[in-house]
Amino acid sequence: MSVPETHDLAGIVILEGLNEDQLRDFEKSCRWRRFAPDEQIVDQQSDSNDVYFITRGRVRVVNFTYSGKEVALEDLTAGQYFGELAAIDGRPRSSSVVALEDSDIAKMSPERFVAVMKMYPDVGLKVMRNMAGIIRTATERIVDLSTLGANSRVHGELLRQHDPGNGGPRAQ
Question: pTM (2 decimals)?
Fold first, then answer.
């Protein structure tokens, strides 16, 4: 475990539009850490509820089936964030998150994150839009699992991965 050399939230998409002083204030309220490849950042069902901002690197959001099989949900890169669900509703984590490469992560308390969304409605709106996208993608995948055969599901997933506006990589 090491601490990143720079503490900079300027590249975080949901914080775009905040001025330098506002960003510096938020940076001071974060705890910073560098994660090595394959290092777990968040454990599924953990009671932690901080929000994490990726300032460098790439992470994978995963779930595990009862039989222990890993199901990759999505990969996130610098400028993205995760952990907002637990910060907002206070419930245990719904997924695990693992670093895929050296990754610098800023961790913010749920109280501070909620305060940021209240102080800056544009930030709150971006979070809501992102959550709406996650819900839409999940709904589409549930329908696909319920109605399509395996080959059709694979074709649909390949098409989705090439269209960020339709459930592909997280559109902010």
Answer: 0.81
